[in-house]
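Thread title: Can someone regenerate the structure for this chain?

I was given the following input by a collaborator and told the matching structure tokens would be attached. They weren't. Posting the sequence so someone can regenerate them.
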Amino acid sequence: MKISSRFTIAVHILSLLSMSKDAHCTSEWIAGSVNTNPVIIRNVLGRLKKAGLVNVRPGTGGAYLIKELEEINLLDIYRAVDVVEKDNLFHFHDSPNPDCPIGANIQIVLNVILKQSQKAMEKVLENVTLKDLVTDLAQQINETN
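Best answer:
Regenerated them for you:
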């Protein structure tokens, strides 16, 4: 099981918007970069707009950032696109056998570890701004050209 690709698509979109300020950033244009359907882009843009990270001009006006890059961290993006339910990154299998000592207790013990793991991952995302990511991305683009 994987985390939804909405997160990486959202990071891709925001990076594209920040590095293509002179472009007409329509969902069709963005979809060309992401290599997906414009409907998926519009869905993710709607979530990013609701989170206050972007605005979208009506019609074919295009999308644009409404926050500075250093004001957006990867955790903001992760939460904006509802990748997982809050504090519920890991899911337990349904109905372990309560008559088995392992089945009756595994969730209680493992839950503590999984909560700590999620908090650690979220801390890493919180410490990386979109500016950090875009700076690294620009450097990578320069190195490959």
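The chain has six helices and two strands.
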